[in-house]
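Hi there, hope your week has been kind to you so far. No rush at all, and the record is pasted right below.
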Amino acid sequence: MIASLSGRVGHVGLDRLVVEVGGVGMLVHTTPRTAAELRAGEDVTVSTTLVVREDSLTLYGFGSAGERDMFETVQTVSGVGPRLALAMLSVLTPDEVRAALTTKDVATLTKIPGVGKKSAERLVLELGDKVGMPSAAGVGESAPAAAVASGGDGRVEQVTEALVGLGWTGKQAGDAVGRVVASADDDATVATLLRLALRDLGR
């Protein structure tokens, strides 16, 4: 198990980054929230988990051990794989997930793409008593708004593609991006637009 990586950020995408460790560039899949906090060229340490499949080895990275632990915990529920777990943490912080589970807030959980009412109820049933109570400071906190991608004509396409990759339909993603672009500053970065679109879809 690769529990963490420390190195220089070689590249930052909307939902992935490359961490250069000992001359090797390690591709790390992550949430848009974590990616938005990083800049190419800076030193970073990310908490990681390695998902092993017959035909692939996929590394997922997070800004904190708590976020990684929640990623692993939700996957103990039948039907929840890495993609859905990553989508969950793209919409909600670990403390928001914990709060929804412990208070049986099915409505909040169903805002996550790929989580229907039955799936949300199963998550609550299996994890509600296991995840503990959220910290008072963590619920509702948003991540720092560091921008990592430059704006440009391709902003809408990039953000829409990232949202579809997280599980929303093309129409849902396109509508959300349209709403946030209309209200955002003209020079808003891709990372900013993605963060706003995730907030819009989480309502």
Residues 4-62 form a domain with the OB fold (Dihydrolipoamide Acetyltransferase, E2P) fold (CATH 2.40.50.140).
